[in-house]
Specification:
By secondary structure, the protein is mainly beta. Helices cover 9% and strands 50% of the residues. The chain has two helices and twelve strands; from the N terminus they run βββααβββββββββ.
């Protein structure tokens, strides 16, 4: 079901929603439009996609970029791999809600769009208690591909968080980002393209 802390962000009748609590997918409702899109926990990527993850992980957001990025790798306990293959064009938006509940959230997401793929992604990070949160998102936008990416943070006043997005856009690709920070805690955000 939908965790209480995320209840205001999604209703059960909403389509194309994935909810991740403390690194585990607990809710997924996707239309047939997403049948070719891979959405999997970064720590549980299937063998058929392992080489793609290995090719891109750490390239846009190197582990040695700074101490917080290095800490992300060392303490990783969650995150998603999202892959839209070549020529996959989806008009509907994918909504992913990340919830921190019982432990610190050390998340690394890898989003890869193949050549001429198009995707709309809306991400929300929420929690309602004291926590340490370290979020690193790597994005690879292939040739002629397009990603519309909206993110929102609504974190508790007793949160200390690092949120880094690093993007690599290939020839004629396009990446549009809209970020809303609604947190009361101490949050450092960096967006590098």
């Amino acid at each position: 079901g939908i965790p209480a802390v995320a209840a205001g962000l999604v209703k059960e009748e909403d389509a194309n929603t994935v909810i991740v609590v403390d690194g585990k997918i607990v809710y997924s409702k996707l239309s047939d439009s997403f049948k070719d899109v891979v959405i999997a926990p970064i720590t549980e990527v299937a063998d058929e996609h392992l080489s793609l993850v290995q090719e891109h992980l750490g390239k846009a957001a190197p582990y040695n970029a700074n101490k917080l990025a290095a800490m992300n790798l060392i303490n990783l306990n969650g995150g998603l791999f999202i892959y839209a293959p070549k020529n996959t064009v989806i008009e509907e938006a994918l909504s992913v809600i990340y919830v921190q509940q019982d432990r610190s959230l050390i998340n690394r997401n890898l989003i890869v769009l193949g050549q001429s793929a198009e995707l709309k992604l809306v991400e929300a990070y929420v929690n309602d208690s004291k926590a340490i949160i370290n979020l690193v998102t790597e994005v690879v936008v292939g040739d002629n591909a397009k990603l519309d990416h909206a993110t929102m943070e609504r974190l508790h006043a007793d949160v200390t968080a690092y949120n880094s997005k690093r993007v690599h856009v290939q020839k004629h690709g396009r990446y549009d980002l809209s970020h809303r920070a609604l947190s009361d805690g101490n949050v450092v955000t960096e967006n590098l393209i």
